[in-house]
Amino acid sequence: MDNFVFYSPTFFAFGRETEREAGQLIKKFGGSKVLVHYGGGSVVRSGLLERVKTSLTEFGLAFVELGGVKPNPRSGLVYEGIALCKKEGVDFVLAVGGGSAIDSAKAIAAGAIYDGDFWDYYQGKRIEEALPVGTVLTIAAAGSEGSESSVITNEDGMYKRGAGGSAIRPKFSILNPELTQTLPAYQTACGITDIFAHLYERYMTNTKHVEVTDRLLEGLMQTLVQEAPKVIADPDNYEARANIMWAGMMAHNNSCGVGRSQDWASHDIEHELSATYDVAHGAGLAVTMPAVMTYNVDHNVMRFAQAAVRVWGCQMDFENPKNTALAGIQAFRNFLKLIGMPQNFAELGAKAEDIDQMAQTACYGDARKGSLGGFVSLNKEDVSNIYKLMLE
Amino acid sequence: MDNFVFYSPTFFAFGRETEREAGQLIKKFGGSKVLVHYGGGSVVRSGLLERVKTSLTEFGLAFVELGGVKPNPRSGLVYEGIALCKKEGVDFVLAVGGGSAIDSAKAIAAGAIYDGDFWDYYQGKRIEEALPVGTVLTIAAAGSEGSESSVITNEDGMYKRGAGGSAIRPKFSILNPELTQTLPAYQTACGITDIFAHLYERYMTNTKHVEVTDRLLEGLMQTLVQEAPKVIADPDNYEARANIMWAGMMAHNNSCGVGRSQDWASHDIEHELSATYDVAHGAGLAVTMPAVMTYNVDHNVMRFAQAAVRVWGCQMDFENPKNTALAGIQAFRNFLKLIGMPQNFAELGAKAEDIDQMAQTACYGDARKGSLGGFVSLNKEDVSNIYKLMLE
Fold it and tell me: Which of A35, B90, B99, B361 has its Cα between 20 and 30 A from that of A1?
């Protein structure tokens, strides 16, 4: 196990009706003038936004609003939010929504007190200072409610990049599983796939002797395997929603990923798909992950076999462990199909002729240096080959 | 799943040589005049105390020392520490040691800025204010390095009681597995047993639909099952020590126990043993837990069967699940024996003639109301019967 630091000072309020605590929590963490940042549509229609604003008013908090966040959140709205914060003297940013609203809120919070261009942070500069951020989460997926990272799509070229720093870790996050019950099955499944990716990206490690984090990651994966079909069959299943929601936070606050190298190749390879075709990140990951795993399987057959046995209940083939490793990848693919995720480029609406450009951007785009991946170092040719595996 | 809040703002520095960061971390969390609180013996002999003090000096921190903490830490030393803090104007308490040093430090930190008797907190008053606490951990066991609780033995009657409150959650904890390599096998095993207890106390729940926390608890138990024999066989196995150390923290910061009722009967029943005979808490738990489980098995056979199958690898007896449930308890008992823990009253040095008094104190002692346990409510007769199960 490697040396590490772990620091997750987010206050989580979890359960029914907890969105009513938004005002109280902002007050507790020192806010007085709030930017309420959200997408639109369902947050407004469901009355959630109104309930949150009522809570803010109840605690004497002034606020301004900025809606319009889209999936794969864009740099343009971030600039708009930063300008609004500066103009209005905002001292707290509240995201109401999913990972997109939260990531956009984090970018605004960092940019609002930074003299330079906020995009500097998305080119590798650590975020050391930001306005405090709180969240009211509406989908179990990105884990941004408990993480110190943010991913934004730069509209000047349409590519996604991530930034990080403990300053943007939310001061509080409100997790009410009821709020996720209105999500369509497809979005729910995209979220579950994203959670799975956060687990597999950590699971694919070259660090030896990491039994404790392996077991925790496996436990979270098993939770998804068991609970996901329940919510797809019955969107109103509060209990299954609750289990998935806590799994989503635990998958990404890094308590289960400490002290080990991690991969993140699937995320980097997928980001070109969602940036190019504006598909849901989870849907892109559903196509990308099995391809990355298949491409990398020989790098450490026993690691894939371990997941196959412990997570997917495959029988160990002691004569030929690779059979087990491949059976585990196939079981994962079957699971993704079962919950309604796309399986290949065609179902995603992606095109073979874009592969070269995407591989080029993934490996050499903004601030990249020719390779990606912490488990296997993948160059442009590898990435192209992985995209090609997704054609079938 | 029940509604819950979760807040674990402790900064963890984990790995080799991290004790050298003590001074820097105290500074980061606002300390200037430090009480260094420890036991004695090994902390001094190993040079750890010197290294920590060097780090404090390096960062310009003034400090006073108070050693002498014993296992099952006593109220007398707490009063002494409180007086010392007041006299010297201490603004930060650093524990160097195991759960006893940390729990004693927490009590001192709370008492140092409280006008009343610190024991009020151990009779049920929540700790809302305390001096900041930091820890340098020397044994994987109590989980106090990441928890908001403290257990102290009142010398006026020799009984143990717990207190809690987020104010005593450590600001930082330094976890260097190397520091645990010098522990004798017996103490190591006591620590592992204590960690197991923190997992089983949470696992024994009456809350339905808690798959995510079940899986996390099971994952941590599986880690102990796999890693414990390695450190008993080879005390210098850094990697196994590291896995157990992180498991010990995760077992008790409650990230894996949220949203569910918990038991804690074994702890309450054991506390009378360690208070009466001054045995190690872990050794007492090794004798207590299987007895409590056996006594409670009919309350929820399937819960015990689940642990038997998932943690202990027992075959499920679908015709008679109780066989599986009991096989799991026996497997746990075998594990405890394997790592060198006592199995009954005789091996613990406890006496049958004290049972009535211990059951009386456990159920009716200071601030108790006649019963204990969150899984099955146990009255004095039940507790007596459980102690009697430990005779064999």
Answer: B99
